[in-house]
Amino acid sequence: MALSNVLEAPAAGFNFENSSRNAALQAGLEGQTPRPMKTGTTIAGVVFKDGVVLGADTRATSSEVVADKMCSKIHYMAPNIYCCGAGTAADTEKTTDLVASNLTIFSLNSGRKPRVVMAVNILQDLLYRYRGQIGASLILGGVDCTGSHLYTVGPYGSVDKKPYLAMGSGNLAAMGIMEDGFRPDLELDQAKQLVRSAIQAGILNDLGSGHNIDLCVITDRGVDYIRPYQESQYKDHRTNKYRFRQGTTPVLTDTVVPLELEVVEEKVQQMETS
Amino acid sequence: MNSRGLRSQLKDSVPVAGFCPQSQFGVQDSLRGGFSSVKNELLPSHPLELSEKNFRLNQDKMNFSTLRNIQGLHAPLKLQMEYQAARQIQRLPFLQSSNLALDTLRGSDDTIGFEDILNDPAQSEMMGEPHMMVEYKMGML
Predict the structure, then answer these.
(1) What is the ipTM of this complex?
(2) Which residues cross the membrane (chain A) (predicted)?
(3) What does each C-alpha distance from A170 to A54, A55, A132, A155 come to in angstroms?
């Protein structure tokens, strides 16, 4: 349409108008583009006798700087399903929110509790549709009517179902601990210890993971979200109080300039009170 | 009314000034649309641009062909007739329609995706000029 007044409404969803401009800017400013906040992370999960234990560290980095020391990486999806997210922080947050909304609508429509496979399938379709541009690696765990399940979904939509999993930049260290310590049908305390040790290994050996360890225990009786399960040993102890009392800084001079305002126009409008 | 098949509606190139109105005579409007280049007009600037533009059409194509294989030709024909009917329930051209009937037919009335959150056309900052758009639709212009 060459007519200037006939408008084609923009399509809903992602808008790619600025992508060529962004590519040109990135070529121009090689090192100085803003970096997204990533959760270079260690996340792990294990299936035990009565359910699933999920664990995560709490550090979010923005290239070399720690952007958030207490970020929460275990996201809610349904009352019986929780999801740990690694990758770009905003992507994991938004994607899990979206899937959680879809699961809630499903529960309200059908009156049933959602199953973990349902969340996995929705996620897989969503992530495959965007060909990995949404950088979210997730570990989903939950207990439903068919039992306890643990799945991992990669950024391109690959799915794996295993009794123990670790993802994120610290996954090599965590996986080593898991492989060594996993047994089928663990007890609750053993499972919590195993996940704690796995995340601890990730925190010690990976720069992208650190600070506290969060755990989430899901059983058919309910969810126990323990935040934090273990606090970081490097706590911030301020040695001094840095508040100064009023009057510490002496006032040297005081200048008052009154603003001259003049009435330019006066308009009275009656309010309709009928 | 569009009676062409789905395949011919697929877009294989993305017009640069899809949103920005072009100036008179179809010349690229540098003031509003920025500098133009032939490369920008032929190749998509983002790997997802084309696949997202055609996503719904491709889904529909896939679903209809599966339905045809399972239930026979009558099923997609009847469904497409209902889709055509639902697509005609629209408000005036410059206003956003809710497309509720179309959503119900597609089954997307109980799912939330990025197209419901991002870039909602009802919240767009530009609106076409009402009189011109209605006249264009009526064929008077």
Answers:
(1) 0.73
(2) none
(3) 15, 13, 20, 17
| Distance (Å) from the alpha carbon of B107 to chain A's nearest alpha carbon | 12
CA B38 vs CA A214, A243, B15, B26, B104: distances in Å: 53, 62, 11, 15, 41
Four-point Cα dihedral A38, A155, A201, A54, nearest 10: 100
For A112-129, what is the HEC assignment? CCCCHHHHHHHHHHHHHH
pTM for this entry: 0.79
Nearest one of A80, A55, A73, A43 to A218, comparing CA atoms:
A80
B59 touches chain A (CB under 8 A): no
Q: Quick one: which of A53, A54, A91, A89 has its CA closest to A70? A: A89
Judged by a CB distance cut-off of 8 A, whether residue A63 touches chain B is no
* CA-based radius of gyration for chain A: 26
Catalytic site residues of A?
41
CATH number of A42-230: 3.60.20.10
